[in-house]
Design goal:
Helix content is 14%, strand content 44%. The N and C termini lie far apart (45 Å). The longest helix is centred in the first third of the chain and has 20 residues, at 2-21. The chain is flat. With 142 residues, the chain is mainly β. The chain has one helix spanning 2-21; strands spanning 25-33, 37-45, 50-59, 66-78, 81-85, 103-108, 123-128, 138-141. The chain has a single domain (2-141), classed as Beta Barrel (Lipocalin).
């Protein structure tokens, strides 16, 4: 009986670990107009529960013409919702200025039971954020 219970607990823990690995990776979001504007966002979710975010914008006739913004912190997943947090003492400095506290994103992927030919790209959609331009942005997994 102990062996059966131990085996079931081990299998359950392995499936939990496998599900969290689905979130890990690089995500991109970009907008551009030929020759005029370019806005790129890159989000990296690491296995150790940390993330790094980079925002780059190059706008013709903008002031300043090129802007880089960075953010970092920790992420946690519950079901398909990823919650981001930043510690003011550890995650903020002259380079990392974006505050991801109270930010949440929804993980969207094709359901393994869906046997149709339709293509659904794996992505994160920000549903809540105190950074106004982050809400409703789709970040596609690379």
């Amino acid at each position: 009986m102990k062996l059966l219970l131990t085996t079931l607990i081990l299998i359950f823990n392995l499936t939990l670990f496998a599900q969290s690995n689905a979130f890990i990776g690089d995500y991109n979001c970009s907008f551009s107009k030929e020759g005029d504007h370019l806005i790129e966002y890159k989000l990296t979710l690491r296995q150790d529960g940390t993330f790094v975010f980079h925002s780059y914008s190059k706008i013709k006739n903008g002031f300043p013409p090129e802007v880089n913004k960075y953010g970092k912190g920790k992420w946690t997943a519950k079901d398909i919702v990823i919650t981001f947090s930043s510690n003011k003492q550890e995650d903020f400095d002259a380079k990392y200025t974006l505050d991801f506290n109270n930010s949440k994103a929804r993980f969207i992927t094709k359901n393994p039971r869906d046997k149709t030919d339709r293509i659904i790209k794996t992505k994160l959609t920000f549903v809540e954020s105190e950074i106004p331009w982050m809400q409703r942005l789709d970040f596609f997994k690379i």
